[in-house]
Amino acid sequence: MAELTNKELKKQEDFNEEIIPHLDALYNFGLRLTSDPNDAEDLVQDTIVKAYRFFSSYEKGTNAKAWLFRILKNSYINNYRKKSKKPQQVDYDEVSTFYETIRAERTDTSDLEDKMFRELIDDELSNALDNIPEDFRTVVLLCDVEDFTYEEIANMLDVPIGTIRSRLHRGRNLLKAELMDYAAKRGYAGD
């Protein structure tokens, strides 16, 4: 086995320092896009492979998280939309094994999962988010949950800032409409 050169070692060190801290956020965003833990893991793995391969194009000290989210979103568009057009196939053995082992394999998560699932957010709320169209859901998640700026989101999604503002406004309104019944059931008065 050949030893790594100093340049390769430095690349690995820089990569670990800049990229690895964002894995949980990447996974949680991937999970919101795919709604499937296995697909989210595959998406993150694909993102990390691409990020490492093209790490030389990343400017150290810039917003690594935004760079990674853009790679993840592009990977999702390229890979998972194609998959979604195929009929869904389920292997019973895989499903039963997954549910038996998921608790044992669970890892610490970042703030996104905490916000989405642990702060009194139940299935209705999660479903409401899932029910808004993907373009709007993505912008709402990136802005309101991940705290990216409009400029960062526009860069990640390759759309003008005005489109981001429009999608965010419409996404929030769609989410609000989805949640009106939810709020009424819990005793919150509407406007």
From TrEMBL:
Location of the RNA polymerase sigma factor 70 region 4 type domain: 124-173
Pfam family, any one: Sigma70_r2
Keywords linked to the UniProt accession: DNA-binding, Sigma factor, Transcription, Transcription regulation
Domain RNA polymerase sigma-70 region: 22-85
Keyword S-adenosyl-L-methionine: no
CDD domains the UniProt entry points to: Sigma70_r4
Domain of life: Bacteria
Family label: Belongs to the sigma-70 factor family. ECF subfamily.
Listed name of the protein: RNA polymerase sigma factor
Organism expressing this protein natively: Rhodohalobacter sulfatireducens
